[in-house]
Amino acid sequence: LPPFFAFFRPNPPPVPLNELPTVPDLSTHHYIKGEWQVVPISTDVLYLNAISMLNPDEGWAVGYKVGYGVILHYHQQHWEEVTVTGTRLGGAHLADVEMVSPEEGWIVGHTIMHYQDGAWQEITLPDGFEKLTDMDIVSADEGWAVGVWGTILHYRDGQWQAVDSPTRKDLFSIDMVSPEEGWAVGKDILNSIKK
Question: CA torsion sign, 123 to 125 to 130 to 134?
């Protein structure tokens, strides 16, 4: 993209719409045999936040396009947008996707979605949850997610539950070393060990 410095000057001269730089089509990048290759996406997605590849031939990505969250599925050597009915993707920011297997996966953001039986379905959220930014799925039966205002959720026994958080600061990433120990970072760094 050409630099946009002129747009940040005080009182910039008006630029006709037909002279504004165009945004290239969004693409993903695939590293194979020692080099990165561009894999185009033929949809009007603005940006992608996360990707989870199951193998070289199948994966999922999440992001945002004007007005709603977007889910992409990679199969048969191309990316395809997935339509999900009965969800609140309008205005939803989708932050992370993690596949447990080709038959099961999770998405977090302004919502939580579960992939099972060949379809994405929205999950009932715990009270007080606002926006999740990241997750780490330890196994098909256990996972953790973090988000704004120090939100920490734990998936166990088939449901997501809020966990007492030692911070009210936004958390952006979580990594579980084992089911008993993990780290969360953001505007704070947390280390948690289950007792």
Answer: negative
